[in-house]
Design brief:
The chain has helices at about 40-50, 65-75, 95-100, 130-135, 150-160, 180-195, 205, 215-225, 245-255, 265-280, and strands at about 10-15, 55, 80-85, 105-110, 140-145, 165, 195-200, 230-235. With about 280 residues, it is an alpha/beta fold. The chain has one domain (about 10-280): TIM Barrel (Alpha-Beta Barrel). It has an 8-stranded parallel beta sheet. Strand 1 (about 10-15), helix 1 and strand 2 (about 55) form a beta-alpha-beta unit. Helix 5 runs parallel beside helix 6 (about 180-195) and helix 6 (about 180-195) packs parallel to helix 8. It starts with 8 loop residues before the first strand and ends with a helix.
């Protein structure tokens, strides 16, 4: 960061060690990313891209994963905050959230909603104490959802208006399949009816190998129109993004997709909103 450039934050990146064994989704079929990824792998990419800090996000649904990430963050100065995992449907969820929140590096929690077979899981009453604990400890709820979850997410936020929520990866629209109607309508309703933020991340993965800025533009424009540049947050989704694009390539695409904004608005999306939302 320099005197004439505001802080730039990558608000969505991951690390993992395969030997830990709790990454159920990470299989040898994902060969390019089926290896360890640690701070020493990311640091040079951030330096070349002019990124000042990151938000490190969980990739496994265990408390052990959260503690692992907090340990990595303590040794990696560029990690400004961690979004971990907690068993929000457990009887002692509030106590677990409180214990994890004792580490000031924890800035949010994320249930892996898009991997759960029941789209109604988030609405069960058992989650209420854990969700209240997230809000009371001033943490963010990262919503890892697909379009099918959006009506329920809207109901969840109506029941928990104090919950600070970020919708990951633009809610994973089906860009490759070109099916955007319900997603577009539900995201517009969420933007209008809630205070949720949305991440500009993960979209090249949803578009597929033939992704292009032109194919992504209608989706990003829709999010900008409804959420505005004050509620959009840039993230790389590294190293998952490398299945489709390099770190610098995705950052350049994001900057091109934001090219119609004034500089101050781009600065908010590319860093200042993450600082505000995650209390970095």
């Amino acid at each position: 960061m320099t005197a004439d450039r505001p802080r730039r934050i990558d608000a969505h990146q991951h690390f993992w060690r395969l030997a830990r064994g709790d990454y159920g989704w990470l299989t040898p079929g994902l060969a390019p990313i089926y290896r360890d990824f640690e701070p020493t792998d990311l640091a040079p990419l951030l330096a070349r891209a002019g990124i000042d800090g990151t938000v490190l996000v969980q990739a496994a649904p265990t408390v052990a994963e959260t503690r692992f990430l907090l340990q990595l963050a303590a040794a990696a100065p560029f990690v400004a905050g961690v979004v971990g995992w907690a068993p929000l449907d457990a009887p002692d969820a509030a106590e677990v959230v409180a214990q994890l929140a004792a580490d000031p590096r924890l800035r949010g929690l994320r249930p892996m909603l898009h991997d759960l077979p029941d789209v109604d899981w988030m609405l069960q009453p058992a989650l209420a104490p854990g969700l209240r604990a997230i809000a009371s400890h001033d943490l963010v709820f990262d919503a890892l959802v697909r379009p099918a979850h959006l009506p329920n997410l809207r109901c969840l936020l109506a029941s928990h208006p104090d919950l600070r929520v970020v919708i990951d990866h633009g809610a994973k629209p089906d860009i490759a399949g070109g099916r955007s109607g319900a997603w577009a309508e539900d995201m517009a309703h969420l933007a209008r009816d809630t205070r949720a933020w949305v991440k500009l991340s993960g979209l090249v993965t949803e578009d597929g190998p033939a992704w292009s800025i032109e194919r992504l533009r209608p989706y990003v424009d829709h999010l900008l129109h409804h959420f505005g540049p004050d509620r959009m947050i840039f993230g790389s989704d590294w190293p998952v993004v490398t299945l489709r694009a390099g770190y610098a390539e995705w950052l350049a695409a994001a900057e091109a997709l934001l090219g119609g904004l004034e500089r101050s608005a781009r600065d908010r999306v590319l860093g200042l909103n993450a600082v505000a939302c995650y209390r970095l």
